Amino acid sequence: VLIAAAGSFEVICYDGTAELTYSLNQPNKGLHIPPGIWCSEAAFSGGAICLVLASEEYLESDYIRCREEFVNWKSSTNEV
């Protein structure tokens, strides 16, 4: 879950076929991002704070860093 604890920012989400952009600007609302969605954050306002609530401990090896690699993974797992 991503929350704009202060300020505002956008979250661009891509499921392998479609892309949606969400604007976060209220500290009482969050965006739940399920596994298998490619996301990036952009357009941070001055003083913005992005609060991340995660269900698992961070492990670098769990993440795909290249969008092309993500698309290949999605098509190989039929996760689209």
Structural notes for this entry:
The protein has one helix at residues 67-77; strands spanning 2-6, 9-14, 19-24, 30-31, 38-42, 49-52. With 80 residues, the protein is mainly beta. β2 and β3 (19-24) form a beta hairpin. The protein is globular, with a radius of gyration of 14 Å. The mean pLDDT is 93.
Helix content: 10-25%
Query: What's the overall geometry?
Result: globular
Topology pattern, helix = H, strand = E: EEEEEEH
What radius of gyration results from the CA coordinates? 14 Å
Give the helix tally.
1
Count of β-strands: 6
Low-confidence parts, pLDDT < 50 over ≥5 residues? none
Average pLDDT rating: 93
The secondary structure category is mainly beta
Residues in β-strands, percent: 35-45%
Describe the structure in brief.
This protein is mostly beta strands and 80 residues long. Helices cover 14% and strands 35% of the residues. β2 and β3 form a beta hairpin.
Name its key features.
80 residues, mainly beta, 3-stranded antiparallel β-sheet, 1 helix, globular
Topology:
Layout (H helix, E strand, L loop, with lengths): L1 E5 L2 E6 L4 E6 L5 E2 L6 E5 L6 E4 L14 H11 L3
Antiparallel strand pairs: 1-4, 1-6, 2-3, 2-5
